Amino acid sequence: MKKYITKFFNRSPWKVAGDLIFWILLVMLLIPGTRSILMEGVSKVRALVMPLTVKTDQAPVLSSKDWQWNLTNAAGKKVPLSRFRGQVILINQWATWCPPCRAEMPSLEKLYREMGSRVTFIILSQEDSTVIEPYIRQKKFTFSWFTTREPMPEKLQTRSIPATAIISRKGQVVIFKKGAYNWNSARIRKLFERLLTEE
């Protein structure tokens, strides 16, 4: 055994470092408790190296029919999207069983605590409320969550989650991002400040 360990560390430092990183990541992926930590780290790196594209002039606009889309809030009451018309909205599609979704939730919570009084957050799952509510309570998230059984408006449809849309006061979908992301970033807060000042 000692012979193999000596041989391993006698190789090029880059090969040793690469192998060690590979094995550490593999172990982290296999241990459920560390998956979300790893995914959260990946989402932060993605936010640094893959900036979001903000559409303004060519952004799709929600139609009158889209605004009639119904959500169900945590209290079990139906709420049409139109109730939030004229506000800056963040819609995040997620599920409790989705590791990338869970990884980005802390950044959404931090952003909500900072901007939730001015921006409407719709944290949306198609799961049953009996699954969502215990998870939200366990994680001590304070944002408003919703469920829906109705088909998504076409401009918000996706085959993968998490998926997040940011909608302007005019109903423009200025961002539609699929995959985990660090939403509590200076870039996103700056975008919200700009959208909040637009008429």
Describe the structure using short key phrases:
199 residues; alpha/beta; 2 domains; seven-stranded mixed sheet
Task: Tell me what the structure shows.
- By secondary structure, the protein is of the alpha/beta class.
- It has two domains: 2-49, no CATH class; 64-197, Glutaredoxin (3-Layer(aba) Sandwich), CATH 3.40.30.10.
- The chain has helices spanning 2-9, 13-30, 32-49, 64-67, 99-115, 129-139, 186-197; strands spanning 70-73, 78-80, 89-93, 120-125, 145-147, 163-167, 173-178.
- Strands 2-1-5-4-3-6-7 form a seven-stranded mixed β-sheet, with no helix packed on it.
- A hairpin with a 5-residue loop joins β6 and β7 (173-178).
- α3 (32-49) packs across α5 (99-115).
- The radius of gyration is 20 Å and the shape is globular.
Per DSSP, the total helix count is 7
Order of helices and strands: HHHHEEEHEHEEEH
What's the end-to-end separation, in Å? 70 Å
* CATH C-level label of the largest domain: Alpha Beta
Helix residue percentage: 40-55%
Q: Could you please say which CATH topology of the largest domain applies here?
A: Glutaredoxin
Number of strands: 7
Radius of gyration: 20 Å
**CATH homology group of the largest domain:** Glutaredoxin
The whole-number mean of residue pLDDT values reads 84
Low-confidence stretches: none
Q: What composes the largest sheet?
A: 7 strands, mixed
Number of domains: 2
Strand order of the largest sheet: 2-1-5-4-3-6-7
The CATH architecture classification of the largest domain is 3-Layer(aba) Sandwich
Structural class: alpha/beta
Q: Which geometry do the CA atoms define?
A: globular
SS strand fraction = 15-25%
